[in-house]
Design brief:
Structural class: alpha/beta
CATH topology of the largest domain: Glutaredoxin
Order of helices and strands: EEHEEHEEEHEHEHEEH
Number of helices: 6
CATH class of the largest domain: Alpha Beta
Length: 209
Protein backbone atom coordinates (compact mmCIF):
# COMPACT_ATOMS: atom_id res chain seq x y z
CA UNK A 1 0.00 0.00 0.00
CA UNK A 2 1.42 3.37 -1.05
CA UNK A 3 0.45 5.34 2.06
CA UNK A 4 3.80 6.58 3.38
CA UNK A 5 3.61 4.15 6.29
CA UNK A 6 3.31 0.53 5.14
CA UNK A 7 6.31 0.75 2.79
CA UNK A 8 9.08 3.42 3.07
CA UNK A 9 8.96 6.23 0.52
CA UNK A 10 12.09 8.25 -0.26
CA UNK A 11 12.90 11.33 -2.31
CA UNK A 12 15.58 11.17 -5.00
CA UNK A 13 18.00 12.43 -2.29
CA UNK A 14 17.00 9.44 -0.10
CA UNK A 15 15.08 11.54 2.41
CA UNK A 16 12.37 9.45 4.08
CA UNK A 17 8.92 10.95 3.58
CA UNK A 18 6.14 10.43 6.13
CA UNK A 19 2.95 12.12 7.26
CA UNK A 20 2.30 15.58 5.86
CA UNK A 21 5.48 15.57 3.77
CA UNK A 22 4.42 12.38 2.01
CA UNK A 23 0.86 13.59 1.40
CA UNK A 24 2.00 16.95 0.05
CA UNK A 25 4.43 15.26 -2.34
CA UNK A 26 1.77 12.88 -3.67
CA UNK A 27 -0.88 15.60 -3.98
CA UNK A 28 1.47 17.89 -5.92
CA UNK A 29 1.51 15.63 -9.03
CA UNK A 30 5.22 16.43 -9.34
CA UNK A 31 6.52 12.94 -8.58
CA UNK A 32 6.19 9.35 -9.76
CA UNK A 33 6.73 6.59 -7.15
CA UNK A 34 9.07 3.91 -8.50
CA UNK A 35 8.95 0.58 -6.61
CA UNK A 36 12.15 -1.27 -5.68
CA UNK A 37 11.72 -5.03 -5.21
CA UNK A 38 13.87 -7.78 -3.76
CA UNK A 39 14.65 -11.18 -5.31
CA UNK A 40 11.28 -12.48 -4.13
CA UNK A 41 9.52 -9.64 -5.97
CA UNK A 42 8.47 -8.00 -2.71
CA UNK A 43 8.31 -4.20 -2.81
CA UNK A 44 10.80 -2.91 -0.23
CA UNK A 45 10.56 0.83 -0.86
CA UNK A 46 9.36 3.51 -3.26
CA UNK A 47 11.67 6.17 -4.67
CA UNK A 48 10.10 9.36 -5.99
CA UNK A 49 11.36 10.66 -9.31
CA UNK A 50 10.43 13.93 -10.99
CA UNK A 51 7.38 13.50 -13.23
CA UNK A 52 7.51 14.57 -16.86
CA UNK A 53 5.10 17.25 -18.05
CA UNK A 54 3.00 14.59 -19.75
CA UNK A 55 2.89 12.52 -16.56
CA UNK A 56 1.93 15.60 -14.52
CA UNK A 57 -0.91 16.31 -16.91
CA UNK A 58 -2.13 12.72 -16.71
CA UNK A 59 -2.03 12.69 -12.91
CA UNK A 60 -3.91 15.99 -12.64
CA UNK A 61 -6.52 14.67 -15.05
CA UNK A 62 -6.81 11.46 -13.01
CA UNK A 63 -7.27 13.44 -9.78
CA UNK A 64 -10.00 15.56 -11.37
CA UNK A 65 -11.81 12.61 -12.91
CA UNK A 66 -11.52 10.55 -9.73
CA UNK A 67 -14.23 12.64 -8.05
CA UNK A 68 -16.46 12.81 -11.14
CA UNK A 69 -16.38 9.57 -13.11
CA UNK A 70 -16.96 6.96 -10.45
CA UNK A 71 -18.98 4.12 -11.96
CA UNK A 72 -21.68 4.48 -9.29
CA UNK A 73 -22.41 8.17 -9.86
CA UNK A 74 -25.90 8.76 -11.19
CA UNK A 75 -26.99 5.21 -10.37
CA UNK A 76 -29.19 3.91 -7.54
CA UNK A 77 -27.28 3.33 -4.30
CA UNK A 78 -26.61 -0.29 -3.44
CA UNK A 79 -28.56 -1.60 -0.43
CA UNK A 80 -27.04 -1.96 3.02
CA UNK A 81 -28.29 -2.52 6.55
CA UNK A 82 -25.82 -1.70 9.32
CA UNK A 83 -25.54 -0.88 13.02
CA UNK A 84 -23.27 1.83 14.41
CA UNK A 85 -21.20 1.83 17.60
CA UNK A 86 -24.11 3.22 19.61
CA UNK A 87 -26.54 0.54 18.44
CA UNK A 88 -28.39 2.72 15.92
CA UNK A 89 -29.41 0.91 12.74
CA UNK A 90 -29.33 2.32 9.22
CA UNK A 91 -30.64 0.80 6.01
CA UNK A 92 -30.66 2.38 2.60
CA UNK A 93 -34.44 2.10 2.15
CA UNK A 94 -35.23 3.75 5.49
CA UNK A 95 -32.89 6.66 4.70
CA UNK A 96 -34.85 7.76 1.64
CA UNK A 97 -35.60 11.48 1.88
CA UNK A 98 -32.34 12.16 3.71
CA UNK A 99 -28.96 13.12 2.31
CA UNK A 100 -26.44 10.36 3.11
CA UNK A 101 -22.78 11.35 3.40
CA UNK A 102 -20.49 8.30 3.57
CA UNK A 103 -16.83 7.96 4.51
CA UNK A 104 -14.85 4.77 3.95
CA UNK A 105 -11.76 4.69 6.20
CA UNK A 106 -9.63 2.59 8.55
CA UNK A 107 -7.70 3.32 11.72
CA UNK A 108 -4.18 3.16 10.25
CA UNK A 109 -5.06 5.38 7.27
CA UNK A 110 -3.05 8.59 7.83
CA UNK A 111 -4.80 10.58 5.05
CA UNK A 112 -8.14 9.57 6.58
CA UNK A 113 -7.09 10.90 9.98
CA UNK A 114 -5.85 14.15 8.46
CA UNK A 115 -9.31 14.87 7.04
CA UNK A 116 -11.27 14.14 10.19
CA UNK A 117 -11.10 17.58 11.86
CA UNK A 118 -12.57 19.17 8.72
CA UNK A 119 -15.16 16.42 8.39
CA UNK A 120 -16.20 17.05 12.00
CA UNK A 121 -16.79 20.68 11.03
CA UNK A 122 -19.12 19.52 8.25
CA UNK A 123 -21.07 17.41 10.74
CA UNK A 124 -21.43 20.44 13.02
CA UNK A 125 -22.43 22.72 10.12
CA UNK A 126 -25.24 20.43 8.98
CA UNK A 127 -26.35 19.07 12.35
CA UNK A 128 -29.80 20.66 11.96
CA UNK A 129 -30.21 19.63 8.32
CA UNK A 130 -31.67 16.41 6.98
CA UNK A 131 -28.20 14.88 6.54
CA UNK A 132 -26.85 11.58 7.88
CA UNK A 133 -23.08 11.10 8.14
CA UNK A 134 -21.98 7.44 8.10
CA UNK A 135 -18.38 6.34 8.62
CA UNK A 136 -17.73 2.81 7.35
CA UNK A 137 -14.56 1.63 9.08
CA UNK A 138 -12.51 -1.23 7.67
CA UNK A 139 -11.32 -1.93 11.23
CA UNK A 140 -12.72 -3.96 14.11
CA UNK A 141 -14.72 -2.54 17.01
CA UNK A 142 -11.96 -2.67 19.65
CA UNK A 143 -9.47 -0.93 17.42
CA UNK A 144 -11.97 1.76 16.41
CA UNK A 145 -13.01 2.44 20.01
CA UNK A 146 -9.39 2.86 21.11
CA UNK A 147 -8.79 5.21 18.19
CA UNK A 148 -11.85 7.36 18.91
CA UNK A 149 -10.79 7.93 22.53
CA UNK A 150 -7.77 9.82 21.24
CA UNK A 151 -9.18 11.16 17.97
CA UNK A 152 -12.90 12.00 18.09
CA UNK A 153 -14.73 11.49 14.80
CA UNK A 154 -18.34 12.65 14.73
CA UNK A 155 -19.74 10.49 11.93
CA UNK A 156 -21.97 7.55 12.91
CA UNK A 157 -19.31 4.85 12.94
CA UNK A 158 -19.93 1.36 11.57
CA UNK A 159 -17.11 -1.11 12.30
CA UNK A 160 -16.03 -4.16 10.31
CA UNK A 161 -17.60 -2.62 7.21
CA UNK A 162 -15.63 -4.71 4.71
CA UNK A 163 -18.81 -6.08 3.11
CA UNK A 164 -20.17 -2.62 2.29
CA UNK A 165 -16.75 -1.49 1.06
CA UNK A 166 -16.51 -4.54 -1.20
CA UNK A 167 -20.02 -3.92 -2.53
CA UNK A 168 -19.00 -0.41 -3.57
CA UNK A 169 -15.62 -1.67 -4.90
CA UNK A 170 -13.62 0.52 -2.51
CA UNK A 171 -9.91 -0.01 -3.15
CA UNK A 172 -8.53 3.39 -2.13
CA UNK A 173 -8.82 5.18 1.21
CA UNK A 174 -10.22 7.55 2.14
CA UNK A 175 -13.26 7.40 -0.14
CA UNK A 176 -16.23 9.75 0.12
CA UNK A 177 -19.70 9.19 -1.30
CA UNK A 178 -22.90 11.22 -1.20
CA UNK A 179 -26.28 9.62 -1.82
CA UNK A 180 -29.12 12.01 -2.60
CA UNK A 181 -32.64 12.04 -1.18
CA UNK A 182 -33.86 9.77 -3.98
CA UNK A 183 -31.17 7.22 -3.12
CA UNK A 184 -28.99 7.88 -6.16
CA UNK A 185 -25.21 8.27 -5.85
CA UNK A 186 -24.50 11.95 -6.47
CA UNK A 187 -20.79 12.17 -5.62
CA UNK A 188 -17.75 9.97 -5.11
CA UNK A 189 -14.10 10.78 -4.54
CA UNK A 190 -11.07 8.76 -3.45
CA UNK A 191 -7.70 9.76 -2.01
CA UNK A 192 -6.47 12.88 -0.27
CA UNK A 193 -7.20 15.97 -2.35
CA UNK A 194 -6.98 19.62 -1.22
CA UNK A 195 -10.44 20.44 -2.61
CA UNK A 196 -12.32 17.36 -1.36
CA UNK A 197 -13.85 18.93 1.77
CA UNK A 198 -14.97 22.07 -0.04
CA UNK A 199 -16.37 19.94 -2.89
CA UNK A 200 -18.39 17.88 -0.40
CA UNK A 201 -19.60 21.03 1.33
CA UNK A 202 -20.80 22.54 -1.96
CA UNK A 203 -22.46 19.29 -2.96
CA UNK A 204 -24.34 19.05 0.34
CA UNK A 205 -25.47 22.66 0.07
CA UNK A 206 -26.76 22.07 -3.44
CA UNK A 207 -28.59 18.85 -2.61
CA UNK A 208 -30.37 19.97 0.57
CA UNK A 209 -32.04 22.95 -1.12
Amino acid sequence: MLDGESIPVYTADFVLLKGDDFNKAMMSANFIPEPYVDNDKVVKLFLLRIASEQEKSQMIQYQEEGSLNNEFIGKPALPFSVTDLLGNTYSIDKLKGKLIVIYFWFVECKPCIMEMPDLNKLVEKYKNANVVFLGFANSNKDKVQRFLKASPFHYHIICDAQDVAAKYKIVSYPTHMIIDKNLNVAYASSGLNPTTISDIDKMIEGLIK
